[in-house]
UniProtKB/TrEMBL annotation:
It comes from Chitinophaga horti. Residues 2-249 form the NmrA-like domain. It comes from the Bacteria. The lineage of its organism: Bacteria, Pseudomonadati, Bacteroidota, Chitinophagia, Chitinophagales. SUPFAM superfamilies: NAD(P)-binding Rossmann-fold domains. This is NAD(P)H-binding protein.
Length: 294
């Protein structure tokens, strides 16, 4: 199969590319950075350098492909983030339609069923709806849980204040997913023909932030490490003081609030809270420890 992987060699793109190349497929990896071409080629894949907002570039690339891994960058610019991301989704949709590709697997998220109030996830809600209008294309929407790797953002807080924290409570039920699990399931879906438009959740387990802090603390030699709940205002201020652009900080504060009140998990729970990933918290905590020390 000829499979297009967008998202360059990121946390998902790298293991996904390795998986597909190992399975014997012709893999073309899209990156906006020319300096990534060598690393892509060393994996046995081909590099296509260009922008995922460029419909003409994508159309040319998708033509003749058997399947596409469609991933839109979550923070496209420091302003108008939702608009920019949705516009990239429109470029994908135009290219999918014009090229005639029949199989697409899209990275989406828990909470994508909600039209607003979910921070950056709002963009994939709109993109899912755009893709649903594509006739004759089999699309799987992979709604991933909250990435374990998001907790790497707590490293400076642990080192400076001895805590982990966010604007959701220690007892919040958080569906978690590891990028490698997402890559494994994406590879599985890309190699299947699909049937219409379908949602598949990618969640490794559901855990509480208090449990995350305990597991991470044990792994880094600080078993007393605790999760501290911040107000929305404290969360927003903390991110902006750390250099995060105001708009992006506001979006991630909104995301935390949606986790806090349980709205984000609604459809996941209605779907039976399916667990698909294999990487569990304790294994991730060991990964975290390696990053923490490094």
């Amino acid at each position: 199969m000829k499979i297009i992987v967008t998202g360059s060699l990121g946390n998902i793109g790298l293991p996904l590319t390795k998986n597909l190349v190992a399975a014997g497929h012709q893999v073309i990896v899209v990156s906006s950075r020319a300096d990534k071409a060598s690393a892509i080629q060393q994996l046995g894949a081909e590099a296509a350098i260009g922008s995922v907002s460029d419909a003409a570039f994508l159309t040319n690339l998708f033509t003749g492909a058997d399947a596409v891994w469609a991933m839109t960058p979550p923070n496209m610019g420091g302003s108008n983030v939702i608009k920019n991301t949705v516009n990239a989704g429109r470029a994908y949709a135009e290219a999918i339609k014009s090229s005639g590709v029949k199989r697409v697997v899209m990275l989406s998220s828990i909470g994508a069923d909600l039209p607003s109030g979910t921070g950056p996830i709002e963009s994939v809600h709109h993109i899912e709806n755009i893709y649903r209008e594509l006739d004759g294309v089999n699309i799987t929407f992979l709604r991933a849980g909250y990435f374990y790797t998001n907790f790497y953002n707590d490293v400076p807080l642990i080192k400076s204040a001895g805590i982990m924290g966010g604007n959701f409570a220690a007892h919040t039920q958080v569906p978690l997913a590891h990028p490698e699990d997402i890559a494994t399931i994406a590879a599985e879906e890309l190699q299947q023909p699909g049937n219409g438009k379908n949602v598949r959740y990618v969640v490794s387990e559901v855990r509480q932030p208090a449990e995350v802090a305990a597991a991470v603390g044990t792994a880094i030699g600080n078993p007393a490490l605790q999760w501290v709940e911040f107000t929305n205002e404290q969360s927003l201020q903390g991110m902006t003081q750390a250099g995060v652009p105001q708009e992006i900080a506001a979006l991630y504060t909104e995301l935390g609030a949606a986790l806090h009140d349980g709205r984000l998990n609604g459809d996941f729970i209605k779907s039976g809270s399916p667990l698909a990933g294999k990487v569990k918290l304790e294994a991730f905590a060991q990964e975290f420890a390696g990053k923490f020390v490094g």
